[in-house]
Amino acid sequence: MLFVACIIGLCVVSSNGQIQRNAAVDDTVCKEYNTYYKIEGSCDSYVECNAYKATYKTCPDGLYFIRDVVWPTYPCAYPSDAQCDSNDAPQRAVASQDCKHQYGFFASPLATRSDCGKYRMCVEGKAFEMECSMGLAFNPESGRCDWPDLVPSCDADAFLGFKCPPATYDEFGKAYVVNFGIAGSCHYFFSCMENVARLLVCDRGFAFDDSVGRCVDATRVQCQEGN
Predict the structure, then answer these.
(1) What digits encode the pLDDT tens for the residues 189-202?
(2) Residues 95, 86, 4, CA angle at the centre, nearest 5°?
(3) Angle at the Cα of 166 (from 206 to 218), degrees rounded to 5?
(4) Shortest CA distance to 131 belongs to which of 148, 144, 145, 117?
């Protein structure tokens, strides 16, 4: 099967479905002294122009070309940070035993519906088990850490160990935001709006005051050091 990719009317053909990395190309492609050009039909291949000299390049497997990148910034990023149109296709995946791509963030086999902060980071095909910041769950759809209530594979109440009480509303039908302190912590608290709980933390120098339900100057809150 032949794979054809074109840029500014110039095409490269590969029989293995990938554009040859660091392949020289006609320098007339370069209209600017130093720049990058996206290759139409490809999510991750591009032309780099350096002193009007053109070279075809392909991002490592799992990374996409950044369309609005400015030379000499590295032009490849994770799919969550770089766009790939429906008409474009990525290179053929180079999977390893633990990673479906050489680079990327993926669901971890260690994650469960009640423990959904775990994820897997792959670097050169090697897997590293990671965990989102406290209160966040890994979203396999976006490849990012997200609010638990926005992750379909996560049971947010079980994961957070907290369930909001029934919501209350003002005279205009807008739900009140109600905050709840956490036993043993001076800085973390749960914030509830319309039955959705999110774990938040006070800014540096502030602590959560149960009596007013918000963060205040830490000197006004009595709490044990380190909590």
Answers:
(1) 999 999 999 999 99
(2) 70
(3) 10
(4) 117
Quick one: pLDDT at residue 1? 34
- What's the confidence (pLDDT) of residue 23? 55
DSSP 3-state assignment of 114? coil
- In angstroms and rounded to an integer, the radius of gyration of the C-alpha atoms of the chain is 24
Give 25's pLDDT tier (boundaries 50, 70, 90).
low
Tokens of 125: 């095909």
Distance CA 31, CA 141 (A): 38
98, 120 contact by CB (below 8 A): yes
Supply the DSSP string of 142-160, one letter for each residue. Answer: TTEEE-GGG-TT--HHHHH
The maximal CA–CA distance of the chain, rounded, in angstroms, is 71
Give the global pTM. Answer: 0.79
